[in-house]
Design goal:
With 316 residues, the protein is an alpha/beta fold. 24% of the residues lie in helices and 25% in strands. The chain has five helices and twelve strands.
């Protein structure tokens, strides 16, 4: 008799955990995604049209996730804005947003998709993680209602956040991070009231997460390393290689070396916006990186990294 689907997933997850525990290394992946962008508009599209666009991008990401898992990756990071792009006003991005609960709710969207209302994007990302027994890191938009009793509540009655989510190999939501340091053009999003320092434990080290422009600031970037003592930082980004910034590969590699942690950097790929440059960076230098200004192709990177880089005998 064949095992039931839940038992099969539990067995695969347990095996993955045991394999990770057997080694002080893990295989990490990042995917630089050439995002399929919506047509620019100041007016909201229908929810169905928004989901159709996001599904086109998730089709590509799912292919990368499957390939990474087949090559033994334990975790994959996808870019900031990787599911719907960035060409939005506050009003026009609304159909792309979902209500993302705090991870303490112990939720697997793949098996319980309607628990917190419609969440087709979270459901699909959760199933990608669950079906491939891999941690999946993605960037989506969160919406939270508010009312007049909140002095900071926007006039439209909601907060909108640039948000990273992490699903574990069972498909459970294990991390949610609201971007704190918004780039000057991100008027479609709100600043969180306080900076968030988000960490989670894995069988291969302690992980932290933040987004793009956050890397230039003390909170949360430095705090994650100096106070929370993470081993690896997850970094979805939409990094433009223009002054006054260094190029993505140079800066992100230098940051990982200076901080003494792994940095899994997944960049959006768009030549017209000078967006490229992803990598798996370690305190000893890049384990793998990609920089392409000549094509509009995505790229999957994988490398075996130390789970606890500060304990490595070659730690700088």
């Amino acid at each position: 008799m064949l095992p039931s689907q839940p038992l099969l997933h539990a067995g695969v997850f347990a095996l993955a955990v045991l394999q990770a525990l057997a080694s002080d290394t893990f295989i990490a992946a990042v995917y630089e995604h050439a995002v399929i962008l919506p047509d620019p508009t100041d007016k909201p599209v229908s929810p169905d049209a928004a989901l159709a666009l996001m599904n086109k991008n998730m089709d590509v990401l799912e292919g990368a996730i499957k390939e990474a898992a087949q090559q033994g990756a334990h975790i994959i990071v996808t870019p900031e804005d990787g599911i719907y792009g960035w060409q939005f006003t506050r009003e026009s991005i609304y159909p792309y947003l979902e209500d993302i609960p705090a991870p303490v709710v112990n939720w697997i969207p793949c098996t319980d998709p309607s628990r917190f209302g419609p969440a087709p994007v979270q459901e699909r990302l959760s199933c990608m993680a669950r079906n491939n027994s891999i941690y999946v890191v993605a960037n989506i938009g969160d919406k939270k209602p508010c009312n007049s009793s909140d002095p900071g509540c926007p006039s439209d009655g909601r907060y909108q956040y640039n948000t990273d989510v992490v699903f574990d190999p069972e498909g459970k939501l294990v991390a949610r991070y609201h971007k704190y340091n918004l780039f000057r053009g991100e008027t479609q999003f709100n600043y969180p009231k306080e900076p968030e320092v988000v960490t989670f434990e894995t069988p291969f080290g302690k992980f932290g997460i933040f987004t793009c422009f956050d890397i230039l600031f003390h909170e949360p970037a430095v705090v994650l390393v100096s106070k929370m003592q993470v081993d690896t930082v997850l970094f979805p980004t939409a990094w433009m290689n223009v002054l006054p910034f260094l190029t993505a590969v140079e800066f992100h590699s230098a940051w990982a070396m200076g901080m003494g942690v792994n940095l899994l950097s997944a960049n959006t790929h768009n030549i017209s916006f000078a967006m490229t440059g992803s990598g798996l960076f370690t305190p000893e230098g890049p384990a793998a990186y990609h920089y392409d200004t000549g094509t509009e192709e995505g790229c999957l990177l994988l490398a075996e990294l130390s789970a606890y880089p500060c304990l490595s005998p070659t730690y700088p």
